[in-house]
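Q: Please design a sequence for this.
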């Protein structure tokens, strides 16, 4: 899941180590998994190991690692062997190999060229294609991925021209449909994805309300969730069999101030919206038939000042929230029965704002 950062003009999501952990090596173990963080302002990528039981973060030896110019969005390959960071000011993608025993990463040169101002990046579940929206050149680049080396190759027909200033991307779990936010048009542009990665636009852009900023698909691929930052709302769309979008009943629904990021619970029954100016989190239950959201009891929940991203951990135990102004990462648990969102003891501070996060299974 992805959003467009206001302060950095980049995708904002991240995860950092516990304060005082230092740069110590931790051997690979089934009791933990890895997290990778792009740090745009320092042109670096950090790596951490997350304990599956406690949620504790430990920095990998040598972290953070130098990367390209202003890494804005980061993804990890489903094989857990490769990490990709798109460099907004470098107009390129960095490929990193992952050391399976330690968790350290090493960049493979040369970097792969993108369009101008790459801002968002998504990968399909099988790890065969990578999609990048280029904000300045108003294009979408598509790359095939070599399963052995992780190398990228731009497919025939890429980049694909799109409407001016494309932003955040979302791919349905099946990989059949790709959607891109367009704030200028107050719309979502949809594409079918062919077996070779080719994109074909689905009808006209779909009206999405003023200033759509972040977008996420639910695990079933039935619904899309879009935040409207200027007007403090969340719009929900039903995804038709053709990929066309229809607005869910009862939406748009009111959020907190300047909703900037959105994440869907792993089981798909709740959606979480981070509100930047009101420094809180709105949580909604979702009608599985219509997609209509209902704000849960106790929502919104007070969180970090100026939240910049929200991301579920793959084990579904923790929700990560990043603070754009406080350079802080908070780890939360959500009780779906009592409707409580509570911080754990594993939250961490950092010296720079994290802009994107990818987590292995």
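A: Design:
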């Amino acid at each position: 899941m992805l959003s467009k950062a206001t302060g950095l003009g980049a995708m904002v999501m991240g995860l950092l180590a516990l304060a005082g952990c230092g740069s110590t090596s931790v051997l690979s173990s089934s009791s933990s998994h890895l997290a990778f963080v792009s740090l745009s302002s320092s042109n670096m990528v950090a790596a951490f190991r997350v304990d599956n039981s406690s949620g504790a973060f430990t920095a990998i030896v040598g972290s953070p690692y130098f990367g390209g110019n202003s890494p804005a969005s980061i993804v990890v390959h489903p094989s857990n062997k490769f990490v990709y960071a798109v460099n907004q000011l470098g107009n390129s993608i960095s490929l990193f190999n992952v050391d399976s025993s330690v968790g350290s990463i090493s960049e493979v040169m040369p970097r792969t060229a993108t369009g101008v101002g790459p801002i968002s990046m998504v990968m399909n579940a099988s790890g065969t294609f990578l999609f990048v929206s280029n904000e300045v050149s108003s294009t979408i680049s598509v790359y095939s991925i070599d399963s052995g080396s992780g190398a990228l190759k731009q497919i025939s027909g890429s980049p694909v021209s799109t409407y001016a200033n494309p932003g955040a991307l979302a791919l349905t779990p099946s990989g059949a449909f790709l959607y891109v936010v367009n704030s200028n048009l107050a719309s979502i542009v949809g594409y079918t994805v062919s077996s070779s990665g080719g994109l074909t636009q689905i009808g006209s852009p779909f009206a999405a309300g003023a200033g759509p900023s972040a977008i996420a698909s639910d695990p079933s691929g039935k619904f899309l969730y879009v935040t409207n930052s200027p007007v403090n709302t969340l719009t929900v769309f039903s995804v038709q069999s053709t990929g066309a979008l229809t607005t869910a009943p009862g939406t748009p629904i009111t959020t907190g101030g300047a909703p900037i990021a959105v994440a869907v619970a792993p089981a798909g029954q709740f959606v979480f919206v981070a509100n930047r100016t009101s420094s809180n989190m709105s949580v909604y239950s979702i009608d599985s038939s219509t997609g209509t959201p209902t704000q849960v009891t106790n929502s919104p929940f007070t969180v970090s000042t100026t939240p910049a991203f929200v991301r579920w951990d793959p084990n579904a135990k923790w929700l990560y929230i990043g603070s754009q102004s406080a350079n802080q990462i908070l780890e939360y648990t959500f009780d779906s029965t009592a409707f409580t969102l509570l911080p754990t003891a594993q939250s961490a501070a950092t010296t720079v704002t994290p802009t994107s996060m990818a987590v292995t299974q």
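Q: Thanks. Anything notable?
A: The chain has a mean pLDDT of 89. Residues 163 and 220 are 28 Å apart (CA to CA).
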